[in-house]
């Protein structure tokens, strides 16, 4: 199994998660992060750290689409291990529905 970053991270991107991961398996897009499913060791440490509650274990049902998105972008985006400032409007986007259409395929800056 692996942990998966899901929709509510989009445009929130608080990045609290990246600092706790023991194997540094987060990758950064312009407005979203993903977990590399082959690198995640399923420790679960990141899940409670996410203020947006966007990180889920893939044992939850209905996450197949987000698992695919994590796997796809983890091979394209740069690695990130250090938290930076989250977007100024992150709080405004937390909990907003239907953010998937806003997911940018562009890479973030990484570490
Ligand atoms: S802490 Fe949550 S919202 Fe922030 S970047 Fe990580 S997964 Fe996204
Ligand atoms: S579950 Fe553990 S290994 Fe997987 S992304 Fe979270 S902190 Fe990293």
From TrEMBL:
Where composition is biased (Basic and acidic residues), the residues are 82-101
Source organism per entry reads Phreatobacter stygius
For this UniProt record, the keywords arranged alphabetically read as follows: 3Fe-4S, 4Fe-4S, Electron transport, Iron, Iron-sulfur, Metal-binding, Repeat, Transport
* Gene3D superfamilies named in the record: 3.30.70.20
Q: Which GO terms describe its molecular function?
A: 3 iron, 4 sulfur cluster binding; 4 iron, 4 sulfur cluster binding; electron transfer activity; metal ion binding
The taxonomy runs:
Bacteria, Pseudomonadati, Pseudomonadota, Alphaproteobacteria, Hyphomicrobiales
What are the start and end residues of every segment in region (Disordered)?
79-111
State the name under which the record lists this protein: Ferredoxin
InterPro entries given in the database record: 4Fe4S_Fe-S-bd (IPR017896), 4Fe4S_Fe_S_CS (IPR017900), 7Fe_ferredoxin (IPR000813), Fd_C (IPR022569), FdxA (IPR054829), RnfB_subfamily (IPR050294)
- In this chain the 4Fe-4S ferredoxin-type domain maps to 1-30, 31-60
Which co-factor is required? [4Fe-4S] cluster; [3Fe-4S] cluster
NCBIfam families the record matches: FdxA_Protbact
Coiled-coil stretches noted in the UniProt entry, renumbered to this chain: none
Provide the function of this protein. Ferredoxins are iron-sulfur proteins that transfer electrons in a wide variety of metabolic reactions.
